[in-house]
Amino acid sequence: MKLPETRVPDPHEAPGIRWGVLGPGGIARSFADAVAVGTASRVVAVGSRSLDRAQVFAADFDVPRAHGSYEDLVADPEVDAVYVASPHSEHRDHALLALQAGKAVLVEKAFARNAAEAAEVFTAARAAGVLVSEAMWSRHLPQYDVVAQVVGSGLIGELVTVFADHGQPLFPDGPERLARPELAGGALLDLGVYPISFADHVMGPATEVMASGTLTDLGVDAQSNVLLRNDAGAQAVLSCTMLAATPCTAAVVGTRGRLELSGAFYGAADVRLVDGEHRVVDERPGGFPDDVRGFSYEIAEFARALTAGEPETAVMTHATTLRVMETMDEVRRRLGMTYPGE
């Protein structure tokens, strides 16, 4: 038993495109750094409702133009694609705004508040003939490709169970948006999307969804536990919480062995191949090259798709995003969690 080599290309090899950043928050800073360090692309503009915030971001990342409105950003003729980094509650509207301006769009995960909003964006993108994709960066990483190859080849036997957890101490003293239902806060869309998307990557569509959890006084989930089953009978046992730091590990268990991902499974994880006797038979340390960031892989894949004239990326198809959104919709239904305006 041996781990396969990744098929994910060096992100520097992708063609360069010109990005506009919509919403200069913390995750947008990670995005801009990944563009600059790990790809041939450039961030050429940033837009915010506050011109001061846009100017600070532009100065920090050597971005040529700062716009004091989202409308001005998407109208910028030098921008090839817009990265939407606003709160979840605004993703649909901001994606549609960019699409109406004829811009390709990469929307930060979770793609929208619910599957209906995601479908609306995808319908508009198809009508406009414009590329749109979800920025689920983990699914573009080299180790995720290794996991897919191992499962697909039958190296660990028939798939039995997927385990994954994601917990960070983000409530009540973390970002305010996570506490607010009107901003689609809670653990699920921010943290739970990682284990749910990982399970979808490994076992495909969920045909059965069960969930339990704890809601805050304002009605968003502080913690959620999810059990999924696919049509072949494989199960996923998943959890997320914004109350505490959890191991953030994952395991993919088959009848002949298992894969273990640690340090966190959704990022630069170590990957171990373990046989049926609990012996580690192969392993690959985590980490990225010095000239690559985790986000660089999704940025490069988007640039390839845009340059090729594709309506969606091969890694994060529209159907993939919709499956994950539908699963999270069902989790929220079972928890009794709704967002204002849905």
UniProtKB/TrEMBL annotation:
Entry-linked Gene3D superfamilies: Dihydrodipicolinate Reductase, domain 2, NAD(P)-binding Rossmann-like Domain
Pfam family for this entry, one: GFO_IDH_MocA_C3
Domain (GFO/IDH/MocA-like oxidoreductase): residue spans on this chain: 147-260
Domain Gfo/Idh/MocA-like oxidoreductase N-terminal, chain residue ranges per copy: 17-134
Alphabetized UniProt keyword annotations: NAD, Oxidoreductase
GO molecular function per UniProt: nucleotide binding; oxidoreductase activity
Protein name: Putative dehydrogenase
Organism this protein belongs to: Terracoccus luteus
